[in-house]
Amino acid sequence: MIDYNKSTKITVISGAGFSKASGIPTFRGKNGLWKNYDPSELATPSAFARDPIVVWQWYKWRLNIILNADPNPAHLTLAKVEQQGLDIAILTQNVDDLHERAGSQNVTHLHGEIRQARCVSCGEKFSWTLDLLNIINDIPKCNNCGSVCRPDVVWFGECLDSNILQGCIDRLFMTDILFVAGTSAVVYPVAEFPFLAQLQNPSIKIFEFNLDYTPISNIVTEIILGSVEKTLPKFFSI
Ligand code: BV8
Ligand code: ZN
Asked: Angle 14-76-234 (CA atoms, 0-180°, nearest 5)?
């Protein structure tokens, strides 16, 4: 158990394991996306340049799963903690909107959002809806300039938005309690975050929620092994 009050700054780094119980495949591990596809082959600018239709089909397949998914008890727990007036910030690697659908307001998407599309020429963004999904062998075009659009996510080999990155570092540097939940902690630069936070504030408390150990497990205060949709509600006794 931890003691916290309204002035405690709580930050959560969530990964694909956070949404697993909602039926959304993780990237790695059993039944992960990696099993059927190679995301490093698909979630890259070169894959999109090579075959934009295949990349769009992959994202349509994933968006369909997300649209039919519901937030799970782990998402709902964080929303309740926020509704109790605690200072909690969620930095998610996930491109789904389940934190928001659970009721969390303070959510930062480090790797973008699958429901957003972006014009490759003028940068116009718009949320692409299901009817777009019905265009099977086509690519969404920009309403503004007619160019090709891409999913508004950060692909491997692309830099994260510098303002978002700076905002996360600032938040980490003022964090008292850091939760790292449902992430294999192998994708940079987010994998660095717990190390940076601890360097900045050696007295930070870091709690890891995962099924297995990860490369950050040896620096955390405590690892709570198990399914986060069960362990997190228990941890906050919500
Ligand atoms: C960057 C959006 C600077 C898209 C994602 C060579 C060339 C270029 C770059 C690199 C390179 N080598 C390394 C890099 C850097 C690269 C990287 O880190 N690669 C890794 C694979 C080594 N990073 C980048 O490219 C980043 N940009 O560095 O820019 C740069 C630029 C050019 C050249 C050099 C540097 C951009 C990374 C962002 C990629 N985009 N997603 C999309 O979603 O389609 S990443 C993708 O992985 C998702 O966002 C996902 O969230 C993220 C991390 O994965 P996890 O969330 O951790 O999910 P995973 O499946 O891995 O693990 C699930 C975990 O949950 C497991 O631990 C499991 O045990 C646990 N779990 C499962 N169920 C449960 C559970 N835990 C609890 N309860 C459960 N029920
Ligand atoms: Zn455009």
From this structure: 85
